[in-house]
Amino acid sequence: MTATEPSRLTSPGRNPELRVSGRYFSRLARERPDIAMCRAATLAARVIDEELAGRRLTASQHLVLKMLDDVGPCSQQELSEQLRIDRSVMVGCIDGLEGSGLVRRDRHPRDRRAYAVTLTAEAAAVLEAAEDGVPRLLDRTFGALTAAERRTLTRLMGKILDAD
């Protein structure tokens, strides 16, 4: 390498600075918040899947049950838009919940062309069990952050998502 060529990083295993300071990815994440967010989302999704595995729910199904419990019957389109779940994924999500007896599709009271997704009586216990695991899930995912840092992260993520 000549003096005019830019220096390249060496493998973290051969670079004492990267070995001492942690991992290559830590440095990359500080430089690229988009990459950091994608990897953090992957970590969170893995933890959510592990927490919900014994409950036979997916993360999307949990969100649907939570929204229906909070706001009442909704169309699949409303659920898809509000939860930012692709429409084709939402169909499968609702099919699975309906097959498990946790929701039913009724004619929408204000739009005869649409169906309203409604919780069944069985959904309450399933949702309660899933919600009971949320504190553990949050601690597993965000355990490296203080309570104040978690609030800041939540506020900043909300700001990014609201701009979308």
Give short descriptive properties of this protein:
164 residues, mainly alpha, 3-stranded antiparallel beta sheet, 7% strand
What is this entry, summarized?
The chain has 9 helices and 3 strands; from the N terminus they run ααααβααββααα. The chain has helices spanning 16-21, 24-31, 33-52, 59-71, 76-83, 87-99, 123-132, 134-142, 147-163, and strands at residues 74-75, 103-107, 115-119.
Structure overview:
Helices cover 63% and strands 7% of the residues. It contains nine helices and three strands. The chain has helices at 16-21, 24-31, 33-52, 59-71, 76-83, 87-99, 123-132, 134-142, 147-163; strands at residues 74-75, 103-107, 115-119. A hairpin with a 7-residue loop joins strand 2 (103-107) and strand 3 (115-119). The N and C termini lie far apart (45 Å). The mean pLDDT is 86.
Strand order of the largest sheet: 1-3-2
Mean pLDDT score = 86
Beta-strand share of residues = 5-15%
The beta-strand count equals 3
Radius of gyration, in angstroms, nearest whole number: 22 Å
Low-confidence stretches: none
What structural class is derived from the secondary structure elements? mainly alpha
